[in-house]
Amino acid sequence: MKYAVIGISGTQYKVEENQTITIDKLDPTTKSTTEVYLIVDDKKIEVGNPTVKNASVEFESVNNYQGPKLDVTKFRAKSRYRKHIGFRPQLTDIKITKINL
Hints:
Ribosomal_bL21; rRNA binding; four-stranded antiparallel β-sheet; ribosomal protein; 10 strands
């Protein structure tokens, strides 16, 4: 089983080849990342310091869309303070095509 831990847009993900993951919005022209922190290939383990040298993970953008609406409400008792904020996150689905070492 081959997998890697990568960093994309400030978040770390554990990914395998041919896996589809949902991340924060990413530029559709981006095709790979070199922020690879760990690669495991059966019994061989490569740990980066902080990243693994000459390692990259290639992926393709599958879908850009808006996620479900999130509601944030603030309330303070006895002071007539109420605040409501809602937003829909911009998300991207990517498919991992290859893990290079």
